[in-house]
Design goal:
disordered C terminus; homohexamer; alpha/beta; 2 domains; Rossmann fold; 8 strands; 44% helix; globular; 4-stranded parallel beta sheet
Chain lengths: 243, 243, 243, 243, 243, 243
């Protein structure tokens, strides 16, 4: 099985961390192909960055689809461009944000999400409403850590995330924690041991969900909003692949 | 007052129709500047088309903001790129979809939306949840008319829309109708007379709401998800204006 | 355009302040006719006061409707008697509470309301559910200030309202503030400057929305709950005008 | 125990039917005092009629409260003036609409309401949201029967109500039926036998609930929205009793 | 009238307290038959205990139904086995949890529940969603008191419950308090006097509601999810009575 | 990896079909141990049957947990006893109903469920509310087929299920179908080909989800409602294993 994991920003070091997390989570027999989007911002911090990343992301989805990917993972916790990607693909497409929240809801009655910046909180809240899991989420909390600070071992990023986890358990009644950024993919085990509750990380959750869907032979429905893009006069439809 | 009305697709004839509707609705003293997005698809029919239109739309917003627009109107009923545009702008930004639904909720206890294609229905349903007006909406109905068929006087588009309106009144208990496509901007009066209920069209509704917000001196809050984009290492932030 | 602004209590000084706010907000060419309801309580503080105010309010609506008002504004933040007034009128009727919340939702992702007394909180919460905007509201907060204390420069009313605004920003994540009493109509600019977020006041918001609706030619739908009152045996229907 | 049952309209024959239903439902030892509101419309058909009935209704509540009523029942299915009445009374106040729906939810997983006119449907839908029972209600259906037609044995009112009940069972999955008008108080048993599902009528349900609350010593909380009306400068508070 | 009150645990002293509370609340002419479930755990603290109690509880319901009970009360605040019991019975079945919350919603605009252990909180939250009363509930609070500590006068159970009530009033805006355990049946009056808001206890509330339903002749609908159990090949249906 | 799949009824032929479906879905390296509950009813058709099945089911969970199962699957679409089983187990526990709905929500914007009997519909509706996926579900439809008729090749069960699927696509806008009974485990491929939309079956979905959770090292949180059962005076806690 081939799983295409696309980091929708342009930071190669994040792609490498994401790829490593994906490969560590994948079953034997699964090939992970990790890619990033060179035309995208170096990090996705809010609606604007996400919107600029999508055309390149869609081109990556189209290319991997043509290469025979069995499933796609969008490795930004905002689930950037997820609906558009599903329109483009026949294979299943999973966002790491929704993946982590679905998984968390199966092992915790209530979970809280700890993300980077407060500007991302409404995006994640809207995604939770969209998936239906908002009622299972205690609160989306921001650690107020820029995405790339997670890449910098000298920053206080890890301590800030830990403080937000502690608050989620104490104040939200969180029974499980969801780490709300792909850049936190290497921290789940540490926090799980520190806090004694399950900690779910999106990249690994999405890879496993993608394997599950592809293994069941399930493909994205084309019967509704995720129907294939309509051809346009002037051939616009092919544009994404050319970005 | 200067209101920037941007048609986020590349079809000039739609821009002209939208501009005319906007000018007809505007108060004395308001200047309407209508534009389109040449880099966008010729019509926005579903998630994929919408995603591709956004970077060019954001560049248009940035340019108009720099030119001193008092408010922006996004003239696609999907409210394409609305959150990202609000991040970029200090002036108010109004989508014609939300504008029509807010207005309809003030003169009808329950309204239904009649849009073009069924693939757009989930987009509009999600937007209604986002604005909070889903509980006021009886149903989002698709007339199964491609967007550009509305531009073609020989098509049966108008009859199909009329049939959907009739069904909305009979089956949904709709007390008002919202026309769910910028390409229907010239049809509201005709349908209102034919069906005897208020018919709300988005371009005119949005222009009036934009005037209202700008007239009150209200500007987009920068305190949450619509905070200005963060500068990126390598200067990515300026990219949209260069698309 | 003629807009009828009715203060549904009997306090003339509030009517004057409301009328001034309405005129300051109105466009050139709009005539504001401000009135109050002499048969009503001197202030509306809770369900009981509101219920007693309604028959006189309806008589005022009926009279202004007969005089050719293009729209009506009910200038109590409780939106007192709004549904009944809409039944009676063909012209649009806007409550200042709903008007402010609709406007705030367009320039802030989340807003909080600051009202006078805690007994009014459930009324405003119910109105938010009714309009659908409850999901956009962080919290309805009471400053614990009687309505008429706002008229008294020696009271600590302004400081109490400011404290509630500060709490809304810090604790609710409010990106915009809605002032929840017609008696606060003159305070919006001051607080906006003090707190750096948009502050929406209902009288001006409602006047602008009323202009927008009337300018669009939209009238209250008679197809559902706002159908005209049924004539009664014995001619009861005319009673309101005689109160 | 003394239960004050107030028909908030001016039709004496309805009051007599309501009083008979109340007495038939009451326990041994309960005295039912039935009254109507001479200053109100002859029937309550929509928001406007309801609003005009409230001041006289409140005066009736105040008088009965002073006379030592142990509980009050508002015998209009719209629960006309319920919140204002609760502000005025220390004894429990029950609306027949909410009473019937609470009871129906205890013996049927899903119930539908059959009321008189479609203009009343949004009122009842809002009341269901208010009580929280909307999720338990399949649909509020109008039989399109004017209230006073129920008093006229020559009308087809009973057949129309029966047709709506049949539709509720077949289409809504209703396991129980709520009769949505005080004027239907004498029909519950007939319909229950005809349709083989429980049929709940509001007057009897409310009398029994009122007995239950009063028997438990429960009184209306004064800690929130139902706090006693504030005294007004000029003594307005006493006005209701004088209407 | 005969009301069957079943304590679904095996602790006889709780049954006696429950029986006393039920008899104190019952009307003249009502016979209360209190029973417990010897095969059940000694207390119900969480999902697991509840699940083990149900077969014996259902046998008790079946036996009392055969003995001609006019209504059944399930005297655990978790409303243990309520849907299954309703399938088995024609007479009304009331859980003390739902009973208390329905009653509280009629005399308080917002109520909070104070229960024993935090592990029971999600059960009660789910029940509130099921009844529809979750929107009326400020918060379900745990006093962190084991059920049987309420039976022990030397424990600090009463003080802990009082502290939770105080917090509910101060922080949740609770206008009424619901005591969330059958073992608190004797404490309602004390707390009501101490805190000055209505305090609702489930056993008495359920007995009164059961009287009300039975007095109205209402029986559990067999038209939906509460249809009688289907006979099984091999006669399994009778098993419950044999537990 | 060892996955314990428990059919909570007593019908061995269903267990064999379920076991075959589970093994067909499992990855290489996964051992499926399928079991049934001899003390349970022969089929679970409604609340009552489900309640009687749970103690034996819990004993099976406890035994498999002691035997070192890496995950448990409850193979009844009602997710019978799921919360209690999660309290008992440290390994993840997945119900086939929730599993199928989570999976369907990832490949279809809206799905409908087709189950056996209408008495099961409210159970499934409540489970959807519990998981949060109710907003993603068009409708839960009953084919009116008894569970064991699915085992009988002469019955018209398959045609009835097909008719319900057709209705779901036409009337509910379902983009994917969920088969709502473990006894339909062998029918998914056939229906997917016949109807051209994804068809999700619960046993295979749950096995794959269980593998995913166990593979990620996620275990059931003990921090909230799924805390381990409290020891009881008299040692009741061990009872389930002895049933």
């Amino acid at each position: 099985m081939r799983i295409h994991v696309v980091n929708p920003n342009a930071t190669r070091s994040m792609t490498e961390k994401i790829g490593a997390a994906a490969r560590a989570a994948a079953s034997a027999g699964t090939t992970v192909v990790a890619a990033d989007v060179p035309s995208a911002p170096v990090s996705i911090e809010g609606y604007y960055d996400g919107a600029l990343a999508v055309p390149g992301l869609l081109a990556a989805i189209a290319a991997a689809e043509a290469d025979g990917a069995d499933a796609h993972v969008i490795a930004c916790f905002d689930d950037t461009g997820l609906d558009a990607a599903r329109s483009l693909a026949d294979a299943p497409v999973i966002g790491i944000g929704e993946a982590a929240c679905h998984m968390a809801s199966l092992i915790g009655g209530r979970f809280s999400v700890v993300t980077t910046l407060s500007r991302s909180v409404p995006i994640l809240e809207q995604n939770l409403v969209r998936s239906g899991l908002d009622g299972r989420c205690g609160r989306v909390r921001a650690a107020e850590v820029p995405v790339l600070a997670l890449e910098d071992p000298r920053s206080d990023a890890r301590a800030r995330v830990a403080a937000a986890i502690a608050a989620a358990i104490a104040e939200d009644g969180a029974e499980a924690i969801v780490l709300g950024c792909a850049g936190m993919a290497d921290l789940a085990t540490t926090y799980a041991q520190e806090f004694g509750v399950p900690v779910v990380e999106g990249v690994s959750a999405a890879v496993r969900l993608a394997e599950a869907l592809a293994g069941l032979g399930l493909r994205t429905s084309k019967a509704g909003g995720w129907a294939r893009p309509r051809p346009k006069p002037g051939g616009f439809e092919g544009t994404a692949a050319a970005v």
